[in-house]
Amino acid sequence: MLDIIFVKGGWVMYVIVSLSIYVLGIIFFKAYQFASGGVFNTQFVDRVMLHIKRGELTEASNQLAREKGPLARIMRVCVEGVMNREISMKSRESEIARVGSSELRYLESHMRGLEMASSIGPLLGLLGTVIGMVVAFAKLSESGARVDPSQLAGGIWQALITTVGGLCVAVPAMAAYYLIDSLIERIRATMRDVTIQTLALEDVFIRNEKEQEKREAIEREERVRKMVEEQNTMLNNPRGAPQSSGTLHLLNPSYTKF
User: Fold this and answer.
1) Tens of pLDDT, residues 144-160
2) Which of 13, 85, 172, 203 has the most C-beta neighbours closer than 10 Å?
């Protein structure tokens, strides 16, 4: 069957078969890439977000370092950016955008190949169809007045086989392209959500830190005030001076009256 297809389809069929092998290679590579790269790993997000909301940024960063996948990496960049108060917000956003773009480019690798195969597959089939019809009409013209239908069979074979072959490559390539693109879009949306949530919590952290500093300042002032009062008390009542009225009562001149 294969030899008939290749013989009848001509050189266009070889190109279509090569294109189908390329498409299958991309599909298997993307499946391996997504499975081994932890792309679907999202179970840690709620656990890590709980640590972030509690302000336990170091614990959140340590947990993210043990996870795989683009989501874990972008969250770790966000958490470490929030922890590092020495860098500006603009630099922090630039670093997050750089890492996010790098992760998405890695996920989108070879997607252009799938898109190209889905586009040129039907065109190759159409090219084979045109070539087959040209061959058929060339034989028809050579036969003159005595037309033999078997002479047209070769050209029609080539026309039909290449058309089917081009569609058989284009349809799976287009389906795989849209399926993988939807997964990447879902990952992109999740990365954007966790980034916004983490950066939004930074305002809460800053407000809590200011309140904590204010409480510590009040406590320091209270401790200083108490120390000053204790020192004033000690100065007003020096140690060794008569404290009670016991001895003074004995020295009271009124005591001699008795």
Assistant:
1) 666 667 766 767 777 78
2) 13
